[in-house]
Every structure is written in structure tokens, then in C-alpha cells.
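Possible regression after last week's pipeline update?

I re-ran a chain I had predicted before the update to compare outputs. Posting the input and the new output here so someone can diff against the archived version. Not blocking, just want to make sure nothing changed silently.
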Amino acid sequence: MTSSNENYQGVLDAINEVRARNGESAQNNPPNWKGIINALQSLNKWGQVENGDTPPGYVPDYDSGGSITGSHYNPQPDNGRLWFDIRSGRLLIWQDDGWYQTNGADGLPFFATSAPASEVPGALWFNTANLNLYIYDGNNWILISSPTGATTTTALPLTSAESNLFPVPTDIQTQNQANAYFIGAVSTLQTNVTALQTEQAAPISASAPSATTAGEFWFNSTTLELRVSYGGAWVPASLPLTDDTDFVALSTTVTNNYTTTTNLITASNVRITALENVPLRTLTLAVDSNEKAIVLNDSAATNTQVKFLGTNGIGITVTASDITVDAADVLTAASGLITATGWGTAITNLTTRTTTLETDVTALQNTPVVSVSAFNTLNTTVSGLPTTSDLNLKVDKSSPSFTTDVDFNNNRLLQVGTATASTDGVNKAYADAIKTYADNTFITQTASTLGNLIISRTNLSSPALDFSGSHTNSFEAFKFKTYGGSGTVTFGVTTYTNEYAYTFTGDEEFSWIGASGKTAFIDDTGITTEALTIANISRNSGGTQVLSNTIDVKERISTYQTALIGVRTALNTSSDYASFKTAALTALANI
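New output (post-update):
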């Protein structure tokens, strides 16, 4: 059964995958509802237009000397993605192979070897063939610059305000000198950052190295946990990460299923295409007036004919649209023959008489044959049987006497008195009284409603309520109706091995309420508590509960959070590794 942490972590991993596709680093949110909310809120930025000096996903390419030789995108922007270039103050959109301005030709030139077919006044066109720049006045393209005499950065002077930005060195007077200075400064900065990263690299191993200097880091490759040396011991520097093995397995399964489904769809498309290319078989009906036949024309086989031949007084007439069969001559000859012989009426009378005789013969064959002597014997036997009057004077041998209170037609005895002996029969009134007493005194197995139930136990070795006869007895053993809501709550075993559960159907919560109010509750979003303590639990000789090695989780997390904020502040404010180490140790001092 999958745990809730794994479900939550799967959602967080999916959100981090979205961030990765958009060129963002993963976030380490806790695997709970709060962490999911934080992760979802971090996605709000993609509902807005991105802005910056470079497009989203832009990655420069460097040569061995650190010079930019080109660029690529990771990831490639999707068509329709927007970016606001803060350098030019223009909104651009990605389409197929590049970024295009969304608000018309208000300053970005049109690049091509020939002028655009139509433009608005003020539009710019850069002729990539001769490197000339033109502006459109509404009728013509006017040349505004060319490579001849173009200004370069070699002698482009800096203003006094720009020169004051770079007091060291003092020889920066032109844009070219400033560019060289900037490139050298960035290269030096990159070298120093690389050296600092190498200096800060923490050892990675399954077993802890010797903790010598406070502030040193070590990454535990077994628990995926970063620790810092403090007081001669390695203490956690952050909350441990959770394993995403289940998500990787799920991703693999989805990928395999996608590949299988794609192959099946491709095979189905091939078969459908083959079926579509099979020529249709056409069947049509026609009339052949020469052959006096109906013809079945088959585009895929030999045609078939059904011929009609008129003989012995039957005429066949065939036109282009129908076939007519005329047997009038045969009908006329038959009618004349019947009239001439007079057999019509005679045949009808003979048929009726024959039917009547057949019915009489069948009835006679089904009548039993009784001889005269046998009938006389039966009559003598019947005459000797008792009459009704004779039977009225007799009774059954098991009942010596009866009164008018006996009703054999309705199978009952009437006017039965109140029972006085253990062998006496009882009347309905007596039985109804016993039933009323039992209903008011005892609980039946099928009873569905009880009043207040008070249990006084005399045998403490047996439970007061026992559902252990079968696991089915314990399924939803208790059921409660929610106050103020339409849901219900049940408690008992479930269909999973060794599992007991409170099952909610609505917005219910299971709460722990003490004298000072609610201290904890569980609802469909998870567990909420004012305080959480982890400890070893035992009892002293008097049976009183004793806690040892207690950890206040809320206080501990708050301490970690404060320390991590201090470490983050140290990263943002420290100018070198030594100052960062000092500030980090100060922030981690209370852990």
C-alpha cells in the first residue's frame, strides 16, 4: 500500500519537472500539503510575461578562453511564449525559430536582402546584403546609415559620468577600453568563483570523515544528507531529502506504456490505410428485356441472371424497368372447368361432412369401454358405502368428544381457556402477552435501534463487546452520523491486511479535545497538532508513564528554520568563504 508521503512526493516531483522544463532549478519542499501549496504558488510566475536582459532558456556558448562563441536554448521555447526585453523595452514572442516583436515595427529593423512588401511609416529595414539601414517614410525607403564611415567603439568616448563609475583603473576613457575592462573583470570573477567552489566542495561518502575543524561540510551518500562539523560531531545542516524511486519507476512505466500504445496506434493506422485502399465491391440489379431476366451485376465477379419463361398459358412481359407475369389464361380455363362439371359446391359440402365425421370418430375412439357386468358391480359397491347422515354420527377415534368451539374448516380450536398446567394448550391472548413481555424485556438479534446501553462486567477476562468471531464481524463495527453534515464515520477493519481505520465520507475530522480545548485532529487533508513530541515511552514501578529522550518537533523545526535563514543570509551577505563560514557557524550554533 502506497504511503501518503510517497503520494505527496510524487506531486512535488511532477512540479519540479515542470520547473526544469522552464529552465528553473528544483525546490526542496516538504512532502505534505503545505509543501505542495508552496510548490504550486511558485508556478504563478508562468502566468505572467517573463522579463530580463536575455530570453528565457538562453544559454551562451564559450570557447576555451572564456569568450562567447554562440548560444543555444535549454529548453527550447514553445511557440507563443512571451518575453519582455528590458534592454529595448519591447515585448517579443517566440515563433518556430526566433523571437519576433509583438507590437509592430517601432524600432526593431526588418532583416532581409530585400525590402518588405508593405510597412508602416517609421519602420526600419536592414539590408543584409549591403549592410545598409533604411527607414520608411510612407512611400520610399530612405538610407540612414551604411558601413562606410560607421562609428566603432575603438574611439567612442565615455562621458564624464560614465568615467566616474570606474575610478580604477584611471585609463578607461573610451567604450573599447571599458569593454576590455568588463571582459577582464568577468573572467577574473569566474576564476575566483571556481576557486571558491572548489574550496567549498564537501566530501561525499557513506561513512563520516574525522570532524576536525568546525564549519566543515560532509555529504552522507547513504542518507542523502548534508552535515556540518560542530563541537567534534557531524550535525544535520538541513532536513533530509526523500527518495524519488517510486516516481522514477512510475515515469519508466508511463514511458513504456506510451511506447507500446504508440506502436499499437501506428499498426492500427497501417491496417486502416490498407482497408481504405481496398476497392469497393459494387452490386446492382438490372432488367434484361431480351433474355426476360433479372441481372445481378457484380463488379468483383461474373454477373448472374434469373430468367422467367412463360409456358402453358403463362405470359411474361419485360420492359426496361420491370417484369410482369400474367397467368390470366390459366385462371380462366380452371374457372370454366369447375363451372362445367358442377364440382365446386359438391366438393365444399363433401369437405365439411368429412371433417365432422373425423371429429366424431376421434371422440368415439377416446371413450373408455365398460362392460355391463363391471358397471353393475360398481353400482352395488357404491350403494353399500356410508351416507352423509351415517358419518355425522361418528367421530375420530383420537378425539372422544367435540363441542361447537372446534372449527376444523379453519384448522383451529375456539374458546381455549387460560393455561394452568405445563401440558395445557394456550390461546392467542396468552401468546401475545408473552411476546409483548419478550419484546419489552429482551434484545433480538435483528434489533436495529437501542436506547441507552449500560454494561456491568463481572468477568474482566472477556471483552464487553466481542467482534473477534470473524474479521467480517469487525468490518465497519461502529458507525456514527456526523453532526451538522450529511456524512458518516465508521470504525473497524478494512479489506487490507492488519489495517484498522476511521473512514470519513465527508468533511469530518477525528479530534482530541482536552480540558483546555482541541489539541490535535485528523481530516482528509492530513494530521494537524499544536505540538508534537518524539520520545521513548516507559512506565515506572508505580505504573506511571515516563518519557525520555524527548524531542519537541515544532521547536526543533523552528530552530532549524532560523538556522537555515541565517545560513542563507550568510550566503547573500558574505564577501568571501571565511566570512561565510563564520556567519554560518553563528547561525548553526543553536542546533
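Follow-up from reviewer: compared with the archived run. Residues 1-5, 161-167 have pLDDT under 50 and may be disordered. Marking as no regression found.
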